[in-house]
Specification:
This is Folylpolyglutamate synthase, mitochondrial isoform X4. This protein is an alpha/beta fold. It is built from 18 helices and 19 strands. It has an 8-stranded mixed β-sheet with strand order 4-3-2-5-1-6-7-8, with helices on both faces. Strand 10 and strand 11 form a beta hairpin. Helix 4 packs across helix 12, helix 5 packs across helix 6 and helix 8 packs parallel to helix 9.
Length: about 550
């Protein structure tokens, strides 16, 4: 399988080409047409996708969790499910799942080379022989699901909706839009309304669609998009409405924000089951118009035992996930937008309030953070300040200093210099925020030059109050080694790298961490960061 993944990685768009695309943006509609041509060259027509009974889901935050809830509910009915999602955390196979499990290395390898050779055989001078990384995986997922004869496929949009390559789907059973927010602004637009227009692009004539409550402007855009093409769009009632007169629903995913995702998932599953003549659901109230939002409310129904068990048993790694490891508790959440970071902070603080206070010594709070793409790290870090971290640690999304170890973790869309510089800028933002709280000290800019190409610890060498609790490491492994100090019973690297404690802050902090009764670590800002952390903390995910 490693050879297949390395060949797949050659389809990743490199950083310089990405910049060129942004400067010379081609007609996005032509990108969809190109995807249809790739589909045809692979041996499928758009009509073949209708057999997959697709649930198509977009949104800014929560779309992956919504898909996971939906898939698990329908699997509980004894249905064979396919699930296409992105990005992967540890292994690329995670993106294509059958009955909730990543496809096997053997199945991945078989379908990868079959598709790759088919596209090679059908190339001509008028077209690029191979689609880019995400397009290739989308095509591959469709082939896998058809070959494996799934009863349904839950398909998560990659970016946006209207021009996302998954939007060659013409006849899904139902569509869903999770919570909207600001993300991928260089591709989707810089306002919620522009982003809503892109997301509403997955709506289809006559195909029911559901959305959760959104701010008024974006919701109006979704409503208009639906009306223009005669798509029946419904507003999901809150989960509380479905719990009336029944025991509360238990969710397998933590965090108050997951209730909105679960409410959407229930409506998507309910609609799919109705479409396939399942009579197991008792509706308490039929859909009715909402005067305020000018959208009909989705039906209120009594969730079945299959639905309840599906919600309760849903697992979705890297999203409000907790790992208990001796004195360390790792809180993992791939939040990377302002609204999702706000939800993450609420979840983390509530989790800390519920835990038992350590009696044998101090408690230490650590933030491990990275942010990528066109997101505003200063805005995200400002939202994290109320958590009152004792240490803030920054590192790139590289598991090891040398990225040659695992093809699944390679990313050719950024250069090493870029990611290290960005981490140092994150530290600078954090120090500035700390200084705003303590304006008595004049801020001095940290030196943004690494100490050398083999530097293991990158940190400003001026011990000043604001930077006293922040550190930059050159990879995830070194960051975890410093944070855990050998106290995580599963993460036990052979020996700490030379220079890990060279900086005074790293040295003094190591003593604090070794003596702490409890270490509460929040890992957030990037799903890729969370994936790299899970690769090291949960070795079973790499097997």
């Amino acid at each position: 399988m490693e050879d297949a993944v390395r060949m797949l990685n050659t389809l990743q768009t490199n950083a310089s080409y990405l910049e060129q695309v942004k400067r010379q943006r081609s007609d996005p509609q032509s990108q969809l047409e190109a995807m249809e041509r790739y589909l045809a060259r692979s041996g499928l027509q758009v009509e073949d996708l209708d057999r997959l009974n697709i649930i198509h889901v977009t949104g800014t935050k929560g779309k992956g969790s919504t898909c996971a809830f939906t898939e698990h509910i329908l699997r509980n009915y004894g249905l064979k499910t396919g699930f296409f999602s992105s990005p992967h955390l540890v292994q690329v196979r995670e993106r294509i799942r059958i009955n909730g499990q990543p496809i096997s290395p053997e199945l991945f390898t078989k379908h990868f080379w079959r598709l790759y050779h088919r596209l090679e055989e059908t190339k001509d001078s008028s077209c690029v022989s191979m689609p880019a990384y995400f397009r290739f995986l989308t095509l591959m997922a469709f082939h896998v699901f058809l070959q494996e004869k799934v009863d349904l496929a839950v398909v998560e949009v990659g970016i946006g909706g209207a021009y996302d390559c998954t939007n060659i789907i013409r006849k899904p059973v139902v569509c869903g839009v999770s919570s909207l927010g600001i993300d991928h602004t260089s591709l989707l637009g810089d306002t919620m309304e522009k982003i809503a227009w892109q997301k509403g692009g997955i709506f289809k004539h006559g195909i029911p669609a559901f959305t959760v409550l959104q701010p008024e402007g974006p919701l109006a855009v979704l409503r208009d998009r639906a009306q223009q093409i005669s798509c029946p769009l419904y507003l999901c009632p809150p989960l509380e409405a479905l719990e009336e007169g029944a025991p509360p629903l238990i969710l397998g995913l933590e965090g108050e924000h997951q209730r909105s995702n679960a409410a959407l998932a229930l409506q998507l599953a309910h609609c799919w089951l109705q479409h396939h003549n399942n009579q197991d659901i008792q509706e308490l109230k039929m859909s009715r118009p909402s005067v305020r939002w000018q959208l009909p409310l989705a039906p209120v129904f009594q969730p079945t035992s299959h639905m309840r068990h599906g919600l309760r048993d849903t697992e979705w790694p890297g999203r409000t996930q907790v790992l208990l490891r001796g004195p360390l508790t790792w809180y993992l959440d791939g939040a990377h937008t302002t609204s999702s970071i706000q939800a993450c902070v609420r979840w983390y603080r509530q989790a800390l309030q519920r835990r038992e206070r350590p009696s044998g010594g101090p408690e230490v709070r650590v933030l491990l953070f990275n942010s990528t793409g066109d997101r505003d790290p200063a805005a995200l870090l400002k939202l994290l300040q109320p958590c009152r971290f004792d240490y803030a640690v920054f590192c790139p999304n590289l598991t090891e200093v040398s990225s040659t170890g695992s093809a699944d973790q390679q990313n050719f869309t950024v250069t090493l210099d870029q990611v290290l510089l960005r981490c140092l800028q994150h530290q600078q933002h954090w120090n500035c925020l700390g200084e705003e709280q303590d304006s008595s000290d004049l801020w001095s800019s940290p030196n943004l030059e690494p100490s050398g190409p083999t530097s293991l610890l990158l940190a400003p060498h001026s011990p000043h109050p604001c930077s006293a609790s922040s550190l930059v490491f050159s990879c995830i492994s070194h960051a975890l080694q410093w944070i855990s100090q050998g106290r995580d019973p599963i993460f036990q690297p052979p020996s700490p790298p030379r220079g890990l404690l060279a900086h005074p802050v790293a040295n003094s902090g190591a003593t604090v961490l070794r003596e702490a009764a409890a270490i509460q670590v929040l890992v957030t800002g990037s799903l890729h960061l969370v994936g790299g952390v899970l690769k090291l903390l949960e070795p079973s995910m790499s097997q």
